[in-house]
């Protein structure tokens, strides 16, 4: 039962990431080359991205940074879930 709950929780965070983040950051965290070049979208394995704390990533999602606009319409829990999904691509 716990395993099913964990799977459902990950599926929800994955859904938030897919709905709000994947269009620029890629389904697996790797943006397509054109998007990366045009908007400066880094991969999760980029040293500058890997150096960010969870709190810093949450701040970027909520407030934007560089060409990235703030992501709106998400609860704090959904923002954290999307950040957790993105950070999981580094592992």
Listing every helix as H and every strand as E from the N terminus to the C terminus, the arrangement reads HHHHHH
Helical content class: 55-70%
Query: C-alpha Rg, in Å?
Result: 13 Å
Poorly predicted tracts of residues: 1-10
Overall description:
The protein has 91 residues and is mostly helical. It has a single domain, classed as Cytochrome Bc1 Complex, Chain D, domain 2 (Orthogonal Bundle). It contains six helices and no strands. α1 crosses α6. The longest helix is centred in the N-terminal third of the chain and has 19 residues. The protein is globular and about 30 Å long. The two termini are 26 Å apart. The N terminus is likely disordered.
Provide the fold topology.
Layout: H1 2-20, H2 22-25, H3 33-39, H4 47-50, H5 54-63, H6 76-88
Helix pairs in contact: 1-6, 5-6
Concise description?
The protein has six helices and no strands.
Label this structure with key terms:
91 residues; single chain; mainly alpha; 0% strand; 63% helix; Cytochrome Bc1 Complex, Chain D, domain 2; globular
